[in-house]
């Protein structure tokens, strides 16, 4: 039997008590209604996975400008808040806890996919040159419009409003998405951020926007309900953060500044620089969540066992196995992921993965 003993220890995360150290990692599923309201199937999807304890939702845009993909949810209109309230109620009814991930995609967008069809916004007018799926098929992401200094402050306000809206919907907290090539990550990357104001140039200036967003959200809903996700050196969205020396300097500064805000957790999408991960752990006062790319079943507890993490979020294992906690507890078999249905819409490949009892 695979030994995962360390994940079954309880853990206190801010205001919530977790009975184990597993969680649901945030994963885009493209099932929202056209107006960005979580669809009727979303409550079922998340409640099926409530035994994971901490459920971090798919990326959820804080504004119309924050949307990049088709059918992703928002958290800035009354209708969207009502949709997330149904999700939160369903999760709470099953004993789980919900953190809404706030994701502004920045330049990883196409006007065909947004409600206003405007040019995407970004730190600088530099295209990511990425293929973006639209209703008419794949199209290249266009050159974005650089945000003015005043507009950067407006986006901070959008995150503030989105966090308040998530709590109004009954969520237990929010995760700020500063990773994976999206807007906050774009500000950190020199090849995407060539600004000459206080948000560009030095590593301190490039980190300023992320810190301001985190501070604003924590002020609104409490630091004990605010987590943040980072992905040092992850080259998604065509970002280049420089060599290992540059990446370590950037993230050691950023995390040291974020640590002053006493946020409830730091969620690291980790690509393999264990020296950096160790130093971030030493600098961070509260909980650490770590996801390693390609981590297999027998490696789920590795970072917890090494003292580098407190919680191990699960991605594909949780997506394909709504009862993954029971399966891991009993060393049961795992369903295989169906990649064809990840973003296909509808219930197939979303809420119809079989339970262990049905296998």
Automatic annotation (TrEMBL):
UniProt cross-references to InterPro entries, sorted A to Z: Aldolase_TIM, OxRdtase_FMN_N, Oye-like
Alphabetical keyword list: Oxidoreductase
Domain of life from the UniProt record: Bacteria
GO cellular component: cytosol
Pfam families: Oxidored_FMN
Domain NADH:flavin oxidoreductase/NADH oxidase N-terminal: 7-332
Record keyword Metal-binding present: no
GO MF annotation terms: FMN binding; oxidoreductase activity, acting on the CH-CH group of donors, NAD or NADP as acceptor
Cofactor: FMN
Gene3D superfamilies xrefs: Aldolase class I (3.20.20.70)
UniProt family annotation: Belongs to the NADH:flavin oxidoreductase/NADH oxidase family.
PANTHER family: NADH OXIDOREDUCTASE-RELATED, NADPH DEHYDROGENASE 2-RELATED
Full protein name: Alkene reductase
């Amino acid at each position: 039997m695979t030994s995962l003993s360390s994940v079954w220890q309880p853990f206190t995360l801010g205001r919530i008590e977790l009975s184990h150290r597993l969680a649901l990692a945030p994963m885009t599923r493209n099932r929202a209604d056209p107006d960005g309201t979580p669809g009727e199937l979303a409550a079922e999807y998340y409640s099926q996975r409530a035994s994971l304890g901490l459920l971090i939702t798919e990326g959820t845009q804080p504004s119309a400008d924050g949307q990049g993909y088709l059918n992703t949810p928002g958290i800035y209109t009354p209708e969207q808040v009502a949709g997330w309230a149904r999700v939160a109620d369903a999760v709470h009814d099953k004993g789980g806890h919900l953190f809404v991930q706030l994701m502004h995609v920045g330049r990883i967008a196409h006007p065909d996919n947004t409600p206003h069809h405007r040019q995407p916004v970004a730190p600088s007018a530099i295209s990511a040159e990425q293929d973006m799926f639209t209703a008419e098929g794949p199209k290249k992401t266009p050159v974005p419009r650089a945000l003015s200094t005043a507009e950067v402050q407006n986006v901070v306000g959008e995150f503030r409003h989105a966090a308040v809206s998530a709590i109004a919907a009954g969520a237990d907290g929010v995760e700020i998405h500063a990773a994976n090539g999206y807007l906050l990550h774009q500000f950190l990357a020199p090849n995407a951020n060539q600004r000459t104001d206080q948000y560009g140039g030095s590593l301190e200036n490039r980190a300023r926007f992320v810190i301001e967003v985190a501070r604003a959200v924590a002020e609104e809903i409490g630091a004990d309900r605010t987590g943040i996700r980072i992905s040092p050196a992850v080259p998604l969205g065509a970002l280049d953060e420089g060599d290992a020396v540059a990446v370590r300097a950037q993230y050691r500064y950023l995390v040291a500044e974020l640590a002053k805000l006493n946020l409830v957790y730091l969620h690291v999408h980790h690509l393999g620089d264990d020296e950096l991960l160790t130093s971030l752990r030493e600098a961070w006062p509260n909980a650490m969540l770590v996801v390693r790319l390609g981590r297999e079943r027998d490696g789920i507890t590795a970072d917890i066992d090494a003292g580098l993490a407190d919680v191990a979020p699960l991605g594909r294992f949780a997506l394909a196995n709504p009862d993954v906690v029971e399966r891991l507890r009993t060393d049961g078999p795992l369903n295989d992921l169906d990649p064809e249905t990840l973003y296909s819409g509808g219930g197939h490949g979303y809420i119809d993965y079989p339970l262990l009892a049905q296998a």
